[in-house]
Write a structure and sequence with these properties.
The strands form three sheets. A seven-stranded mixed β-sheet has the order 1-2-3-4-5-14-6. A seven-stranded mixed β-sheet has the order 8-9-10-11-12-7-13, with helices on both faces. Strands 17-16-15-18-19 form a five-stranded mixed β-sheet. The chain has helices at 12-25, 33-46, 99-113, 171-184, 193-199, 256-266, 312-316, 372-378, 385-390, 398-408; strands spanning 6-9, 53-57, 60-75, 78-90, 118-121, 135-136, 139-146, 160-164, 213-218, 224-235, 243-253, 272-280, 297-303, 306-309, 325-332, 346-353, 356-361, 368-371, 394-396. The chain contains ten helices and 19 strands. The protein binds coenzyme A.
């Protein structure tokens, strides 16, 4: 008879098997040779080794999961440590017997033990993670348009743009801009230097990389304050001179002027006929500066970061609302009956006062009832509380809804760029 499933931290001797099973579950052969060594070096520098897990049956690896050690911005200038769950995979011959559940529960328990306030992930399938209390906290979009029709209204830019044909040549400046941007952008995660090797690496992967230009915006003092990473893509007939499409992989700007300048630049490069802006905000500020707003067509809107709160007081304690408010919420947590010590079920009084938020357990009658996943979807302001009430993902009276809105309000939708 098979031994029961167990989850262990990956040791040197399990590493090959864990990688093989996880890459196989995503339809790929494991990396070998130099590629494997580079991947391990980069992953080793950004991941938490204690959270690299293997599920075993009879000492055979049947599944695996990893996690990055992330700094996650919850309010401008205010961060928490979050574990970025990644590479959850189970051998296709061993699915349906609880390996993923065991891996995710072990990930959550260990992350809490290691002081992470939350767990984050990007989901390959959106049906998987609500059962663990993850909710979609940030959204991103792909916008397209014909560049002739994407004229930006006149604005004053005292700065300039420097162009680099290889993003790797300017990686220090990109990193500098991203560091400042991620610290002030709700929903963003910081990127360490090894992560930039993926973004500017020669190989194009789903996390970034491949040949790409970097347009660097500098302010009036010559300090970098924005960048766009992009490539050209021929569209249409292979035999004749092809129309070129501008594919923007990332456009990051510290202020509106840099954003407008970079958008104007990528839409006015000679020979470019159309734009595809990937990993973009759903409602970028530049839309309000276009002569023809409709011409920036939103062709895809997708959930990006899923959030599961582990330590509610620590997490909401990092919010920085401008207004004072108090509300009692009752949460239902799907971890009840599975991982009791992480179960956030019950009543919590959330109070913001002078820009500081506290969360305490209480017996008071709640004004709002919802579940932990829905709370994850609203806590950064990604989906308005009232909208979730209209969709009956949340019950509450109008006053409590507006109190909660005041605690979680952000002017701009939370946004995240980093794939993992
Ligand atoms: C998705 C995957 C990890 C599931 O592994 P598994 O070991 O079969 O999952 P489990 O048996 O532990 O199932 C856990 C729960 O998820 C549910 N579930 C499993 N696969 C599911 C799917 N594809 N869609 C929706 N629910 C699913 C199960 O019904 C079970 O529900 P319950 O525990 O609430 O009763 C596995 O099929 C896989 O490796 N797929 C390819 C890689 C992938 O998509 N990974 C997810 C990365 S984000």
């Amino acid at each position: 008879m098979e031994s029961p499933l167990r989850v262990v931290t990956v040791t040197e001797e399990l590493l090959d098997d864990q990688e093989r099973v996880v890459s196989g579950s995503f339809g790929a052969a494991p990396a070998t040779g130099e590629r494997r060594e580079r991947g391990r070096r980069i992953h080793g520098a950004i991941a938490d080794p204690e959270l690299k897990l293997a599920a075993l049956v009879d000492d055979r690896v049947v599944g695996g999961a990893s996690a990055l050690d992330m700094t996650f911005t919850v309010a401008p200038g205010s961060t928490v440590r979050a574990a970025g769950l990644a590479g959850v995979g189970v051998d296709a011959t061993m699915t349906g017997r609880g390996a993923m559940r065991a891996l995710v529960e072990a990930h959550l328990e260990r992350s809490a033990d290691r002081g992470y306030a939350a767990s984050l992930l990007t989901a390959s399938e959106t049906s998987l993670y609500g059962r663990f209390g993850y909710g979609p906290a940030t959204w991103s979009a792909i916008h397209e348009g014909v560049t002739d029709r994407l004229t930006v209204k006149p604005f004053d830019d005292p700065g300039r743009i420097d162009l680099y044909q290889r993003a790797a040549d300017v990686v220090d400046e990109l990193e500098l801009v991203h560091d400042r941007w991620s610290a002030q952008t709700v929903g963003a995660t910081a990127r360490s230097s090894p992560y930039w090797e993926i973004i500017t690496g020669a190989e194009e992967t789903w996390m970034g990389g491949g040949p790409q230009f970097a347009a660097l915006h500098l302010d009036i003092d010559g300090t970098p304050d924005g960048y766009a990473l992009y490539k050209w893509e021929p569209v249409g007939d292979d035999d004749g001179p092809a129309d070129q499409r501008m594919v923007v992989n990332e456009l990051v700007a510290l202020d509106l002027t840099a954003e407008l300048a970079l958008f104007r630049f990528v839409t006015t490069v000679p020979m470019i006929r159309s734009l595809r802006w990937r990993l973009a905000p759903v409602d970028p500020r530049v839309r309000w500066w276009l002569e023809e707003q409709r011409q920036l067509r939103l062709v895809e809107r997708t959930d990006r970061l899923w959030l599961r709160i582990l330590d509610l007081p620590a997490f909401v304690g990092a919010l920085r609302p401008e207004e004072d408010a108090t509300v009692v919420i009752e949460l239902a947590d799907p971890l009840a009956g599975h991982v009791e010590r992480l179960d956030l079920s019950g009543r919590w009084r959330l109070r913001s006062s002078g820009g500081v938020v506290s969360a305490e357990r209480t017996d008071t009658e709640p004004g709002i009832r919802t579940d932990v996943a829905t709370f994850g979807a609203l806590v950064l302001g990604g989906t308005p509380v009232g909208r979730l009430r209209a969709a009956r993902r949340l019950r509450g009276d109008a006053r409590s809804v507006s109190e909660l809105e005041r605690i979680v309000h952000t002017d701009r939708a939370p946004f995240s760029l980093t794939r993992f």
